[in-house]
Model the fold of this input.
Amino acid sequence: MKTKDKIIHAAIELFNLQGEQNVTTNHIAAHLGMSPGNLYYHFRNKEDIIQAIFDRYAEQLNLLFGLDDNSGSESVGGLRTSMRYMEAVVGLMWQFRFIYENLPDILSRDVVMAEKYRQIQEPVYGLMTRHLLGLRAQGILLANDEDLDALLHLMKQVLIFWPAYLHTLTPGGNITKAMVYGVVPRVFFMFRPYMAPEALDELRQLEQYFQDKASQSRVKEGVDA
Amino acid sequence: MKTKDKIIHAAIELFNLQGEQNVTTNHIAAHLGMSPGNLYYHFRNKEDIIQAIFDRYAEQLNLLFGLDDNSGSESVGGLRTSMRYMEAVVGLMWQFRFIYENLPDILSRDVVMAEKYRQIQEPVYGLMTRHLLGLRAQGILLANDEDLDALLHLMKQVLIFWPAYLHTLTPGGNITKAMVYGVVPRVFFMFRPYMAPEALDELRQLEQYFQDKASQSRVKEGVDA
DNA sequence: GTCTATACAACGATAGAC
DNA sequence: GTCTATCGTTGTATAGAC
Done:
């Protein structure tokens, strides 16, 4: 693994564990048994490191949501696809939780990153809009345009700030992957009043699936920290 | 006005305007045309100032939610009371928005404040639980215990992180009071599927009331910054 | 590429005169 | 109560040898 990658990796780990603001460039270097000077050979400054992490985040996001394949054949998908999206979100939320935990702070400190963030998120919400419209076309979701939009934005806010919310609830401040999975039933709860009765059964199954996931990761907690 | 109060006042203003972490004790002193030494005569350190602000916040919260009057005569109230609560929340969110905008950060930096925060919030959510149960008893709200609890926690998260969410949406990062009012229709939207049909009309009136409020403050924007 | 050593700036906080 | 002056610490970042 290249030194640059090692630094990025260590930075993510320390940021997640101790909070981005509590981790200095010296900490990162020390954690790698490396001199601060060496770190600055590979990165201009701390912001530069965070930006590199953001790029990784964007990469994974595009990959998981299939935003790269410009094959034009975007599968609308049913509730199974919704589930895949939720898994992607939860995975990213865990992997890059320091971003979610201090979003306003990180964005307000660097205008470039704020712009980058919005450009990363935008296509995802385009995709989600099309996905919800698809669910409605299939008769799974029963809602007018206005309600669909409200649901989308509500979901957006709840998802983005879920790690931050967990952070305020836990005294020590350390959240677990199982806790992150806890957002799924909440999102489903918001959609339930708008689900077609026939689809409720499948939704229940998906909810069960996520509950199992949550307990699985509760067992192997710390392994994939 | 006593110097101590002036400092608190200035601190709140600067924190709200520029973000708590971007405001140093020197900035506060300079803003008041005062020496740093003088500021430190009145407060032991920066945390001390923030704690004082927290105490003010708690005071106002207790006042607005009537948590002081231990007369035992807690009026359960209908939707008009819900409205009063919403106004209280929005008002506090605006007045102390820097707290809401960087909650995880502020709490993680100071364990004492984290505990204080939880002790401030707790009775409010007790009150809100009783209020929602009251609405159900009056036939305004139709939901089982589980759904009521889910609604409460969802509302809690949406409200607390509304200013932070707005912060991520606005490029400059400066939010307005009118924008803060925007959370009200979202909260109402979450409850709508569980409202009794007879109550929907009154809900619509309340929504109109808040829309007017929002445009009013849009006009006098900056006056009560 | 990596190290040691160090410059530099910012901020928090204090001492002591008035 | 308020000032001026200043210290100490910490974190960012660079210079220059290896």
User: Anything to note?
Assistant: The first helix of chain B runs from residue 3 to 18.
